[in-house]
Design brief:
alpha/beta; elongated; binds guanosine-5'-diphosphate; binds magnesium ion; Signal_recog_particle_SRP54_M; RNA-binding; 7S RNA binding; signal recognition particle
Length: 442
């Protein structure tokens, strides 16, 4: 597996400073193979790997993770990011009905999806109607009616007077129908062809122009692998779409299509279909898809555990420092701050220390830019200055201010706050509870 190959790549490596370029290249080679094996299009793999490499080159060696794990973590984060981070929600019209149009090749799963979407919308408190605008195949209307019945959602189908044989007319009149019957969402099922077809695209574009959908969802069979990109591009050019629904994820496809389409069209997968039954449907989860594409859920779990363990260790060490009182230096101050940034907020750290739970409420969220400034200032100090800030006279302060791009008053302010923190450490060390936790001024 990829995990094994990566472990082998990094047999001997440990280090300080930055990740080395060779290590990163070696990992990226393995990641590249894994992505191609997952059917991610080559055109999508290249920019993806380039982004990962750039980020990895800039990052410092983590103390919690080995270099392979660290690069994999970056790969995973980038992957989740491109796949959409948090899944985008459906856009609803200010004036109902909201119109959702489904487009995609024949057999992609549009009609099935109409039922699933209808059922899901209904469960969310909407009153959807499904519209049979696929008049290409003789039994397409009946198929949607069966699906609608199973989903408990009404189906609007062509009848004499509303456009028999004319999908554009059916789609258009369905909007009036929805208004009159108080349906707030209209899901339009359209025809597909086996391949990309100009006439089909024109018909879909005509339906689009007739109904002005809030969302055009491109329905994509995850099993078509490498072809996903050309198909998606053709639909993007021919009809345009706002989001993607990936179907047949119950098969053995690794889901590379999700990355290819997101990377190359900038449109995100919003829903995932994983079976023929109406319940086999969910909003898309980028994190789950990322680990499916990488095929290394176990490694990601390991990474998470390693980081948690490391954070706990750091917190314990900090607790010892807090309780010890003496010897709290600017280095410790900086280390605390880095820890805080890594963990998100001071309140979390305090939560990890025994007996500090109640103090969490008192703690404000830490400002990231503030931490950047403090970091820059402390990093501009010599080791001696960090250990013994008393030697920081006017000219030293001016040098530090210049070196970190801040005004001298910011350096003065930092030193005042540090002195307060130090005092507080001492009072905690003597067992008294301070009125404020160890990090005043944030
Ligand atoms: P359409 O031509 O795009 O409307 O596609 P259909 O909805 O008619 O689906 C084509 C075939 O794929 C049908 O046999 C469906 O039961 C099947 N199908 C649709 N979605 C899925 C899915 O998520 N998983 C599996 N295994 N089959 C699916
Ligand atoms: Mg169909």
């Amino acid at each position: 597996t990829l995990s094994d190959r990566l472990a082998a790549t990094f047999k001997s490596l440990r280090g300080k400073g930055r990740l080395s370029e060779e290590d990163i290249d070696a990992t990226c080679r393995e990641i590249r193979i894994a992505l191609l094996e997952a059917d991610v299009a080559l055109a999508a793999v290249r920019p993806f790997i380039a982004a990962v490499k750039q980020r990895a080159m800039g990052s410092e060696v983590s103390q919690a993770l080995n270099p392979a794990q660290q690069v994999v973590k970056i790969v995973n984060e980038e992957l989740v990011g491109i796949l959409g981070g948090q899944t985008r929600r459906l856009r609803f019209a200010k004036q109902p009905p909201t119109v959702i149009m489904l487009a995609g090749l024949q057999g992609a799963g549009k009609t099935t999806l109409a039922g699933k979407l209808g059922r899901w919308l209904k469960s969310q408190g909407h009153a959807p109607v499904l519209v049979a605008a696929d008049l290409q195949r003789p039994n397409a209307v009946t198929q949607l009616q069966v699906v609608g019945e199973r989903a408990g959602v009404p189906v609007y189908a062509p009848e004499p007077g509303n456009g028999v044989g004319d999908p554009v007319a059916v789609a258009k009149s369905s909007i009036e129908f929805a208004k009159s019957k108080m349906h707030d969402v209209v899901v339009i099922d359209t025809a597909g062809r086996l391949g990309i077809d100009e006439e089909l695209m024109r018909q879909a574009a005509d339906i689009r122009d007739a109904v002005g959908p809030q969302e055009i969802l491109f329905v994509l069979d995850a099993m078509i692998g490498q072809d996903a990109v050309t198909t998606a591009q053709a639909f993007l050019d021919g009809v345009g779409f706002d989001g993607v629904v990936l179907t047949k994820l119950d098969g053995d496809a690794r889901g590379g299509a999700a990355l290819s389409v997101a990377q190359l069209t900038g449109r995100q997968v919003m829903f995932a279909s994983n079976g023929e039954k109406l319940e086999d449907f969910d909003v898309f989860h980028p994190d789950r898809m990322a680990s499916r594409i990488l095929g290394m859920g176990d490694m990601l779990t390991l990474i998470e555990q390693a980081e948690k363990a490391f954070d706990a260790e750091q917190a314990e060490e900090m607790a010892r420092k807090l309780m010890g009182g003496d010897g709290f230096t600017l280095d410790d101050f900086l280390a605390q701050m880095e820890q805080i940034r890594k963990m998100g907020s001071l309140s979390k750290i305090m939560g990890m220390l025994p007996g500090m739970g109640e103090m969490k409420q008192q703690l404000a969220q830490v400002d990231d830019r503030e931490i950047d400034r403090v970091q820059a200032m402390i990093r501009s100090m010599t080791p001696q200055e960090r250990r013994d800030p008393k030697i920081l006279n006017g000219s030293r302060r001016a040098r530090i201010a210049k070196g970190s791009g801040v005004h001298v008053s910011a350096v003065n302010n930092l030193l005042e706050r540090f002195a307060e923190a130090q005092k507080m450490m001492k009072s905690m060390g003597r067992g008294g509870m301070p009125s404020l936790p160890g990090m005043p001024g944030f």
